[in-house]
Amino acid sequence: MLSERRLQVLRAIVQDYVGTEEPVGSKALTERHNLGVSPATVRNDMAALEEEGYIAQPHTSAGRIPTDKGYRLFVDKLAGVKPMTAPERRAIQNFLEGAVDLDDVVARTVRLLAQLTRQVAVVQYPSLTRSTVRHVELLSLAPARVMLVLITDTGRVEQRMVDCPAPFGETSLADLRARLNSRVAGRRFSDVPKLVEDLPDAFEPEDRGTVSTVLSTLLETLVEENEERLMIGGTANLTRFGHDFPLTIRPVLEALEEQVVLLKLLGEAKDPGVTVRIGHENAHEGLNSTSVVSVGYGSGGEAVAKLGVVGPTRMDYPGTMGAVRAVARYVGQILAES
Amino acid sequence: MLSERRLQVLRAIVQDYVGTEEPVGSKALTERHNLGVSPATVRNDMAALEEEGYIAQPHTSAGRIPTDKGYRLFVDKLAGVKPMTAPERRAIQNFLEGAVDLDDVVARTVRLLAQLTRQVAVVQYPSLTRSTVRHVELLSLAPARVMLVLITDTGRVEQRMVDCPAPFGETSLADLRARLNSRVAGRRFSDVPKLVEDLPDAFEPEDRGTVSTVLSTLLETLVEENEERLMIGGTANLTRFGHDFPLTIRPVLEALEEQVVLLKLLGEAKDPGVTVRIGHENAHEGLNSTSVVSVGYGSGGEAVAKLGVVGPTRMDYPGTMGAVRAVARYVGQILAES
DNA sequence: CTTTGGCACTCCCATGCGAAGAGTGCCAGG
DNA sequence: CCTGGCACTCTTCGCATGGGAGTGCCAAAG
Fold it and tell me: Where is the HTH deoR-type domain (chains A, B) (predicted)?
């Protein structure tokens, strides 16, 4: 177990390094923070912290920088979440309230997060399976062509074309629309498969093929793969990464383009609160020198999706966590209102 | 007027510089291209080309690199569009045909363009005003709440919430839906305002307020500002820009996040064919060292939107132009089919 | 046992210098 | 008008040097 003072030394190292981006030495530490001890003592503490793997030196006779393990301890034990100031909160709320539709909400959220944290922002669209159905619409575009439109309580709209095996009359379509909505409206998407299972039985034999086709298309849109969408922004902030970045930035940009990777990144967060994954804690190799701060958001008590930021492991964790948490809260409010 | 050989020298300089990314000297030129003259002669030609502003030296006693003006001449006079090979065409077609909806088409197009050109790809969604209306749907979500869904012939779907000034009955809604569709279905969006002008007159006085509200929301979605959406991808390719890129890449990433800037970039292209804007020809300052290659695409004869790539002025113009043109062609086909 | 000041040591980094290389411009001759 | 030769310029690289920051260890004091 580390003594109280050694933890303070670690905290000071993290804070200084995050501020200056340069390895921090014992002398500078005692000057900037009044620890009440001499540099020599700090040196001993540093040696101990290094022994335990919380800090490291880039090379002999350089200052120390925190390791992933050091940041982890900092986040877990040494730092809280820095709350947003009142003006900041107002600004967030005002900005988000101007949104006209879901796309706009998400787009604004991304911009906001990127600006507040000065990092790369990632916002997932509300998940279909965790939302409830507001309405299912069927439109006849041609005798054997139907458009299926899904609308969720979070304002998300998804549409698919359906090519019917047989012509489908306007009355049958109206019938299907009515039956479908009476069964699924207001229910959670995850329950939809069970709720529509026996629906074809209610129809005339010649329509059953078409009804099944429509239903299977409906179910297809709910599978994980299609239903997860996201938006990213603030990539220009990557240029603040470090001076060495051709090598650092490349894999990050690549990872950001892989939706699957990003979804996993956000998706692994289980905690109801803000989740932080530091450096090598991220499964994806290209993100080994980045940290991800994420949190769920939702219109009610339950999270319908995640949002977060990606930045260098050397980031302002308390501030970032505060911003992410605040934005998630307000986005949830906006969605609940719409 | 430049002699034929000088143009060849310019062409050779552009080709070599694009390939090697290094200033090209007179000796290297004569070795790699058989111009049939000695380095000394080439030097004279180079001096002339520099005099005219087509090439420049980074510093005395270095090789030459093309200027924007040099690239312009190269694109206009010295190089054609390199057509895609048959296998490449097939690959493009196969990849695009797998798309399930418009979002997917656009997403795939972006990936494709980015991969083919190894540059940043930008694809604009089909413009609303240049598309035709397939269907307008009205859904009653609450007594005084209506959702408006617009569907275009290109598969684009746009939705808006409408808060009605007064409760609006289901029959009135059906009436409005029917009248609206009979007037606008199959018509161009740009004609919609005129077509619905007098629609409120057909309704009972107590419903007119709501009808007007719905119509004005409909018209709002058509204004330029909202109707232009786009998707970008391949930003990781920016890392191939140059070795100096902290300074180069930053403004480019920033510009790419500004939808307005990008839309202007694509929008300025008038030509029915591929348009190339080189370096300072781009109005936006951050893009002064990049070139934009863009072209319109559409389901029929007319372009409904633009797509293109953004890359360093030092790019393979013939290849890029070929890829952009080919992709646009196939996207048009896919949209026409859906 | 912990803290402190002193001191030698290590390693990075900025600076300066010199040599090498690439490329040019110019000139005189074919 | 083309060509070969030649002097000149400018960058780049390697290398040695000195300064500086920071460490680790030790012996003494609290």
Answer: 34-62
Find the CB nearest B101 among A134, A135, A159. A159
Nearest-Cα residue of chain A relative to residue B140: A135
Q: A248: helix, coil or strand?
A: helix
Nearest nucleotide to B50, CA against C1' atoms: C24
Q: Which one, of A55, A49, A2, A70, lies nearest residue A24 by Cα?
A: A55
The Cα diameter of chain A in Å comes to 89
- Closest C-alpha among B135, B302, B335 to residue B218: B135
Residue B40 burial (CB < 10 Å; 0-12/13-18/19+)? exposed
Pair of tokens at residue B39: 């380095």
Instruction: Compute how many other C-beta atoms are within 10 angstroms of the C-beta atom of residue A195.
Output: 14
The phi and psi torsions of B165 (rounded to 5 degrees) equal: -70, -25
- Which residues is B296 bridged to in the sheet? B306
CA dihedral A167, A170, A173, A177 (to 10 degrees): 160
Tokens 């190292």 map to which residue?
A: A13
Calpha distance B210→B215 (Å, rounded): 9
CB distance A62 to A28 below 8 Å: no
- The torsion angles phi and psi of A312, rounded to 5 degrees, stand at -65, 150
B236 in Cβ contact with A250 (< 8 Å): yes
pLDDT at A142: 83
Q: For residue B244, what pLDDT is reported?
A: 60
For chains A and B, count residue pairs whose Cβ atoms are closer than 8 Å: 74
Q: DSSP class of residue B24?
A: B
Q: Give me the helices (H) in chain B, please.
A: 4-20, 26-32, 39-51, 68-73, 86-97, 102-117, 170-184, 192-196, 205-220, 224-227, 245-257, 259-267, 317-337
Taking the CA of residue B95 and the C1' sugar atom of nucleotide C15, their distance in angstroms comes to 57
A184 exposure class (CB count in 10 Å sphere: 0-12, 13-18, 19+): buried
Report the nearest residue to nucleotide D2, CA vs C1'. B41
Helix (H, G, I), strand (E, B) or coil at A124: strand
Strand bridging mode A65-66 / A305-312: unpaired
Q: How confident is the model at residue B225 (pLDDT cuts 50, 70, 90)?
A: low
Q: Write out the H or E segment, with its range, that includes residue A12.
A: helix A4-20
As beta bridge partners, residue A121 has A233, A309
- Mean pLDDT over B182-200 rounds to 92
CA distance B11 to B9: 5
pLDDT at A270: 66
Residue B141's identity, in one-letter code, is L
Lookup: tokens for B307: 């797509």
Give the nucleotide with minimal C1' distance to the Cα of A29: D22
Q: Using CA atoms, how far apart are residues A324 and A83, in angstroms rounded to an integer? A: 10
State the average pLDDT over residues B9-14: 96
Give the Cα separation of A272 and A261 in Å (integer). 21
pLDDT in tens, B34-70: 888 999 999 999 999 999 999 999 998 899 999 999 9
- Block means of pLDDT (10 residues each) for chain A, 338 residues, are 89 95 94 91 96 94 95 96 97 93 93 97 92 89 87 86 88 92 92 91 89 93 78 92 71 91 79 90 92 90 89 96 97 87
Yes or no: say if A185 and B187 are a contact pair by the CB < 8 Å rule: no
Contact B264/B294 with Cβ under 8 angstroms?
no
Q: Of A80, A99, A69, A74, give the one whose Cα is nearest residue A14.
A: A74
What b/e sequence results for B56-80 when a residue is b if at least 16 CB atoms lie within 10 Å of its CB, and e otherwise? Answer: beeeeeebbbbbbbbbbbbbeebbe
Cα–Cα distance, A258 to A84 (Å, whole number): 31
User: Do A85 and A206 meet the contact criterion of CB atoms below 8 Å apart?
Assistant: no
The minimum CA-CA distance between A329 and chain B, rounded to whole Å, is 22
pLDDT at B271 over 80: no
- What pairs with residue A139 in β-bridges? A147
